[in-house]
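Please check this protein record:
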Amino acid sequence: MSGGEQPTDRPAEAPALRASDAERERTAVILRDHAAAGRLTPEELDERLDAAYAARTVGELDALVHDLPADAAAPVARTPPRSAAREAARRRLLHAIGQAVLVSAAAIAIWLATGADGSFWPKWVVLVSAIRIAFAAWGELGPAGAAGSGSESRLGRGGVRPRDPLPPPPPRPDPPGR
C-alpha cells in the first residue's frame, strides 16, 4: 500500500454495519479478480485478503476495494449460458436415453426370467439402443442438430453463412383476351 495507507483504513462515509461471511467472501473474490487482471501484486493481494477475512464492518471491506475500478470487479461468467433450444434438445436426448435404458432393462429381465441359459441375447437390444442414442445425440446436439436451429447461427457449406431463400416471383398478369 502506498503512502502509509493501511488496507483497513476506513473512509469517513463508510457504514459501520457488521459484515457477514458472504460479504467477506465476495470482497475476497473481487480482490482475486483484480489480482488476476494485474491490478494487485501478490503481496498486496495477501495483505488485502488477510484484512478482508479479519474485517468486522462493511466499511472495512469497502476500504479494501475503494482504489480499484468497480466495472472490472464483476465476476466473469466461466461458462456460457445454455440457450433455450439447446436445453430443449438436451431434455429430448435424456428422454431418449431413459427409453433405451428401460427397453434394455426389460430385455435383460425377460432373459433372467426365462432361466438365463444360453447366450446373452439382450446384448443385441443394448447394442441397437446404444446406436439409437448415438444417432439421437448427434441429431440433437451435433453441428447441424436441432439445438442449433434456435437463435444460434450456423455456417453452411464451405464455412459461409447460408443466404436467405429467394422470395417467390410475383404473379404474372393474365394476358388480355382470356
Notes: Residues 8-73 form one domain.
